[in-house]
Write a structure and sequence with these properties.
This protein has about 140 residues and is mainly α. The protein has 7 helices and 3 strands; from the N terminus they run βαβααβαααα. The chain has a 3-stranded antiparallel sheet, covered by helices on one side. The longest helix has 25 residues. The mean pLDDT is about 85.
Length: about 140
């Protein structure tokens, strides 16, 4: 049994996804250079990840990957999730803006517990918004 390169990827996740796709269709494949690229992620771009398989299944595997790249196996229900209603979007945006204004998002960490300075900031923001609403209401009269 001869092994040949079926495809080359720059991302370990993309290579694993292609390997799982082909394995689900009965084609035996293996992702190479996994150790080097997971130890040092910068090596993914330098080495790439090869998807290798048996030579007698190589043409079928290449054909399946080309068809998948064209979107032949895409499911419209999964690719187009229903959009959220306007109320949910408005509440989500408001919550995100409030937390961002209070400094609750720092870097890539989860929102932290609100400290006293955050509560003071929230009160100040609420006062500014209330004054703006009151001023705009007086402008109507």
């Amino acid at each position: 049994m001869n092994l040949v390169e079926i495809a080359r990827y720059q991302d370990v996740y993309e290579a694993d996804l292609a390997a799982a796709f082909l394995s689900a269709r009965g084609i035996e494949v293996e992702v190479t250079e996994r150790f080097q690229t997971t130890v040092d992620p910068l090596m993914q771009r330098a080495l790439g990840l090869r998807l290798i398989g048996r030579s007698d299944q190589a043409l079928e595997a290449c054909d399946l990957l080309a068809r998948a790249a064209r979107g032949e196996f895409a499911d419209n229900d999964v690719d187009n999730p229903p959009s959220a209603d306007p109320t949910t979007r408005a509440v989500g945006r408001g919550l995100a803006l409030t937390l961002a204004a209070m400094g609750a998002f720092w870097g890539n960490s989860l929102p932290r517990r609100l400290r006293m300075v955050h509560w003071i900031g929230l009160v100040l923001i609420a006062c500014v918004v209330a004054l703006y609403v009151i001023a705009s209401l007086y402008a109507w009269f």
